[in-house]
Amino acid sequence: xxxxxxxxxxxxxxxxxxxxxxxxxxxxxxxxxxxxxxxxxxxxxxxxxxxxxxxxxxxxxxxxxxxxxxxxxxxxxxxxxxxxxxxxxxxxxxxxxxxxxxxxxxxxxxxxxxxxxxxxxxxxxxxxxxxxxxxxxxxxxxxxxxxxxxxxxxxxxxxxxxxxxxxxxxxxxxxxxxxxxxxxxxxxxxxxxxxxxxxxxxxxxxxxxxxxxxxxxxxxxxxxxxxxxxxxxxxxxxxxxxxxxxxxxxxxxxxxxxxxxxxxxxxxxxxxxxxxxxxxxxxxxxxxxxxxxxxxxxxxxxxxxxxxxxxxxxxxx
Length: 317
Description:
With 317 residues, this protein is mostly helical. It has helices at residues 2-17, 26-41, 46-78, 80-94, 97-112, 116-124, 136-183, 195-222, 227-237, 246-257, 287-316, and strands at 261-262, 265-267, 270-272, 276-277. α8 packs across α11. The two termini are 13 Å apart.
């Protein structure tokens, strides 16, 4: 039950305060280690590049689990309440629901003010595509896609791993996600060095992304959105992405809102062809960013309550 308490307190803290910003945030430490490994070991021969990238990934994921595990083991042995407070603090730093809403709503408010240049700038902070030539509809679609995709790896997946193994397993997952975001690309620079990290991220998110989609389907009912449309698009378009996981939640969100997401976009000046997700029953609009966040939070709370119920059931048995 301490695990349930720690996750619940961490989730509540994230909803209220958002992700804390400070120099020694665990994600920043992970990022610094990855950057150092990239500088020291990247761009060797192909085979060596892959091996060094794999070793970096294994080292970071293992360390991200073992360090908090050892610390919490000591703290719980010393004083239970101290251990619980620290683990709840760890859980708080692993989740990113409010940060996701905050960053996407900055785009919404810029559009509401009629400042499309600022909207493009804020969007560029949270998406990988080129934003300088996007119109209001394309900006709205991109922000919605970001909320839908990151619901899984920023909120639901961390909850799942924390309910399975507490903050240490949550940090291990965070390491996997950070590795993928920094080196898990299929371009020339990271084609080999980041290949293991990318595959590890695919594996770590395979089940959570599908659980996230199912929870989002239920949440679309709670939010009085188009649940039938969400189910239809999910069944049809959930694999319309190079990643085996990204379109799972994007397809549900597209169907629930009645808009079309993804499609062709420019990345670093190069046109990248992608299949669309959803049916364009109407043009995407800035209000869809608010709707996507409402759906994200409903899904997050559903995931939290479902996780608590499962843990209590396991404890009772």
